[in-house]
Amino acid sequence: MPKDVSTPVPPWAAGTEGRMDELNPGLTEEQIAIVCSYGEEARFEDGAWLWRAGQRDTGFHLVLSGEVEVVDSKCAEERVIITHGRGHYGGEISTMIGRGALVGGRAKGEVSAIRLSSARLREMIALESELGETVLLSFILRRMRMIAETQGDVTLYGIAAEAETGTLRSFLSRHGVPMHFVDLAEDGAAAKLEHLGVTAEDRPVVTTGQGMLVRPSIRDLAEHIGIAAEIEKDAHFDVVIVGGGPAGLAAAVYGASEGLSALVIESIAPGGQAATSSRIENFFGFPTGISGQALTGRGFLQAHKFGAEIAPARCIERIECGTPHTLFLDGGDRVTAGAVVIASGAIYREPPIENLDDFTGGGVHYGASHVEAQLCKNRDVAIVGGGNSAGQAAVFLAGHARCVRILIRGESLASSMSQYLIDRIERTANIEVLNHTEVAEARGDTRLETLLLKDSRDGSTREIETPQLFIFIGAVPATGFVPGKVTLDGKGFVLTGPDLDAEALDAAGWPLERRPTHLETSCPGIYAVGDVRSGSVKRVASAVGEGSVCIQFVHQVLADRAG
Predict the structure, then answer these.
(1) Average model confidence (pLDDT) across the chain
(2) Do 467 and 480 belong to one domain?
(3) In this structure, are strands 104-116 and 40-44 parallel, antiparallel, or unpaired?
């Protein structure tokens, strides 16, 4: 069966590739004693399952006596990946997070083991620094191995070039889920669906050991494979963070590490718009650069490490200001919060190109990840936009495409792009910059085939062939859920702190004698950080800073209400 192993390193694992010797460390007797202080002993008969694939909150199992086989079951086949003895333990990233396990663990002979719940495991990792580093690194390396060897039972059937399939592949990839991918566009591939009782017209189809999904939504897929968060009905949190980009994840890391109960609601997957950046080279502390997925993926793990709850594939429909605030989620769920941090960011704006919507996902993209890059191999592609995101995408895609054309309306890139990117573009032979150029029309049958270009100086036109178009121009704020008491500027971005004048506060019904603190909106206890905030600097470092800083104001408002 074809395998998708194009992402051997998940986003949160970059930089650990050379440390595979730490995949299955044996703990010392001193370390075993530490683990024992966090958990309870459990005994299992020969052949009993300590945990099963697909099971949530499987717990962490440290073997005291006997042996435990880690079992990969897929396509009705079973394979023992490794056998753990005394001082060794099972588990990987899902174990710490409490999501669905990708493989199972079975007793070989009579087994005695120390079991820690996911919550106690996270506590141990956070408090026992040396032991915690050993365990967390081994978890990351194990997930890397699982992806490289496509362990687990998730198989996606679809056509790589189609939007629905691409969305599911990107979602699984961004969550580091190992998967098999069967491209139904290949000769004979459609026949693989016959034994499932479906046809190629039902695509995309996802199968796991728990069953089959036909044309699933992202939320359906997340729930089916066990990576969706289980939020208690009417649960209360100290702070709910809307958006899992750099700003939201930073708020979660600092909030949870300082003892606040924190929930992050993310509509797709952690990382936000930053995760679509192939490489960030001006972020402090990373002189060789780091991908957006790797950076935000590490923040995702940090937030979980300190106990934050992250709910992917969920959306906030509306917020009611109050004491506490009430947030209504899709699906009818609701939660309350002492404070809310709006970190929903902004999305790239659609330019006025004729027929553009006809090809969204069918050749038109608003991000350039490895999934999109695979569609560009040995082909000509075009990029609309002259900012850093466009430049990073161009350099990244140039390593896959035959030719990359950057289309800009202005005279040059100098006014909108960092010089280091301009220099790199000039040195890349297969990147071409077309100045004074606009896309007038997208053309094709069922997929994008050509673009009609217009010269912005004289209006002349010409047509170029390109099956892939990437758009990185401007941004509109994601504020559809924001309550009316939160004041927006003329472009729809959220006004905060000193930008709120007396007239705006009166109109919003500001009830307090004090003015809003820095990053606070016109509704007390609701904050805005990152790209969604009016006047923000559209840089990852700035978003991280705002997300971390706002937590001090959350502490303040919670203390005021408690007093």
Answers:
(1) 90
(2) no
(3) antiparallel
**Dist. CA 144–CA 54, nearest whole Å:** 19
CB 264 within 8 Å of CB 309: yes
Centroid of chain to Cα 327: 22
Residues 93 and 184 both lie in one domain: no
Q: Give yes or no for a contact between 475 and 351, defined as CB atoms under 8 angstroms apart.
A: no
Instruction: Flag whether pLDDT at 249 surpasses 60.
Output: yes
Nearest Cα to 342, choosing from 324, 322, 323, 327? Answer: 327
| Domains of the chain: total | 4
Q: What is the dihedral of CA 359, 360, 362, 364, to 10 degrees?
A: 90
DSSP-derived letter for residue 24 is S
For 544, residues 6+ apart whose C-beta sits below 8 A from its C-beta are 246, 247, 250
Q: Are residues 166 and 313 in the same domain?
A: no
Task: Tokens for 102, please give them.
Answer: 């990708």
Domain check: are 17 and 139 in the same one? yes
CATH code for the domain of 365: 3.50.50.60
Residue 18 has pLDDT above 70, yes or no: no
What CATH number has the domain bearing residue 179? Answer: 3.40.30.10
pLDDT tens for each residue of 39-98: 999 999 999 999 998 888 899 999 999 999 999 876 567 889 999 999 999 999 999 998
Collapsed DSSP state (helix, strand, coil) of residue 536 = coil
Burial class (CB in 10 A: 0-12, 13-18, 19+), 243: buried
* Same domain, residue pair 22 and 129: yes
Q: How far is the C-alpha of 184 from the C-alpha of 231, rounded, in Å?
A: 36
Q: For the segment 374-383, what is each residue's pLDDT rounded down to a tens digit?
A: 889 999 999 9
- Mind listing the pLDDT tens digit for each residue in 261-303? 999 999 988 888 787 777 788 888 888 888 887 888 889 999 9
Does the N-terminal peptide bond of residue 324 adopt cis geometry, omega within 30 degrees of 0? Answer: yes
Locate 343 and state its tokens: 């970190």
pLDDT of residue 1: 36
Torsion angles phi and psi, residue 94, rounded to 5? -60, -30
pTM: 0.86
d(CA 161, CA 138): 35
Q: Write b or e for each residue in 7-19: b if 16 or more Cβ atoms lie within 10 A of its Cβ, otherwise e.
A: bebbbbbbeeeee
